[in-house]
Amino acid sequence: ESLALNQEEDAVALKEKEDKIEKLEKESRSIENDLNSSYAKNEKLEEWIQHFSSKLKDSELLVSSLRETLQDTEIESARRDDLLEGVAKSLVKTCCDLKLKGNS
């Protein structure tokens, strides 16, 4: 009877341990799935980061190019303003000279 009782207790203890092992295995699989999901999300985020980093670099290059173009345009505009001012002064001088010749 004592032996049967010990066997029964051992069987109950074994069943509890098996249940505990099964529960731990399920938790382990769940954690592994969560990790795999996290890795996949991290990879996707890394792709997005690389994509936007590339776009940012392209934007920075474009801004730099636009600044250079603006600077070149401002320089060209100032040069043309100087030329127009010179032409205007020359026209005024020519008109004054013609007026003086006409009065003579």
Automatic annotation (TrEMBL):
Which organism is this entry from?
Chaetoceros debilis
Q: Which UniProt keywords apply?
A: Coiled coil
List where this protein forms a coiled coil: 7-76
Identify the domain of life: Eukaryota
Q: What is the name of this protein?
A: Uncharacterized protein
Keyword Coiled coil assigned to the entry: answer is: yes
Has the keyword Coiled coil been applied to this entry?
Answer: yes
